[in-house]
Amino acid sequence: MDVLLPPSCETALLERFLKAEAMALWAVRSAQAKEVPPGVLTFLRRHEEEEAKHLKEFETRLGVQSHARETLPRMPSQWWALVIHLFGYEALGLEFAKLLVQVQPDLQSILEDEQVHVAFFENEVKKVLAPGGSAAEGARQSARAWWRRLPSTVDRYLEGDSLMPFRSELKARIMASIFIRFESLTLFNDMAQ
Ligand SMILES: [Fe+2]
Ligand SMILES: [Fe+2]
After folding, report:
1. Alpha carbons 41 and 131: distance in angstroms, whole number
2. Which is nearest to 48 in space by CA: 31, 36, 72, 70?
C-alpha cells in the first residue's frame, strides 16, 4: 500500500484501532469457549496474549483505558462460521495495521503479528473448504454474510475528522484488499450476481 496518510491521522487511527483490537481480543476469548479443531486452541491462547499486548500498547499511547465488557460478543458456535469471523476480523485488523505503520513505523511488530494471525486463519479456512460438502458451503454463506456487513463496519472504523479527506479512498482500498483475500480462497464461489 502506498503511503497516503499524514502524521496528523495518528491519533484517529490509534483510537479506531484500539476499538478493533478490543473487539479482536473478545472474539478470540469467546472462540476459546467453542469447539475448535485440534491445534487451534493453542494458537488462540498465544493469539489472545498478542492482542492483549497490542491493546495495552494503544492504551498507553493514547493514555486511555478501554472499558472491559462483561459479556463477550456473540460468536457462532460452528467452526466453519467461526473461522470466517476470525479470519475476516484479522484481515481487517491487518489493513489497519498497514495504515498505522504509515504514520507510526515503530509499530511494525504489530503489523507482523497481524500477518501471522491472518495466515493462520487463512490456512484454517482452506482446511474447512478442502473436503467440500456442507461445512464448505456453510463457510461460503458465512463469508457472503460477513462481506455484506463489512461496509458499515469499515465506516465505523474510519470515523474521525482527520480521516475525512481520505475516507472514501481508504474504504475502497480496504474493501478491495479483503475482497481479493476472500475471493482467492474461493469463498465467493457461487456468489449470486
Ligand atoms: Fe492485534
Ligand atoms: Fe490480530
Report:
1. 22
2. 31
Pairwise CA distance, residues 108 & 97, whole Å: 8
For residue range 76-113, what is the model confidence (pLDDT) as tens digits?
999 999 999 999 999 999 999 999 999 999 999 999 99
Distance 113 CA to ligand 1 centre (A): 7
Asked if 84 contacts 140 with a C-beta cutoff of 8 angstroms, the reply is: no
> Environment class of residue 107 by beta-carbon count within 10 Å: exposed (0-12), middle (13-18) or buried (19+)?
buried
Q: Provide the 10 A C-beta neighbour count for residue 29.
A: 17
CA of 171 to the centre of ligand 1 (A): 20
> Which residue in the block uniquely carries the three cell numbers 450476481?
193
| pTM beyond 0.85 | yes
Q: Alpha-carbon distance 111 to 183, whole Å?
A: 22
**What's the CA-to-centroid distance between 190 and ligand 2, angstroms?**
29
Spatial CB neighbours of 66, under 8 Å, sequence gap ≥ 6: 18, 19, 22, 55, 59
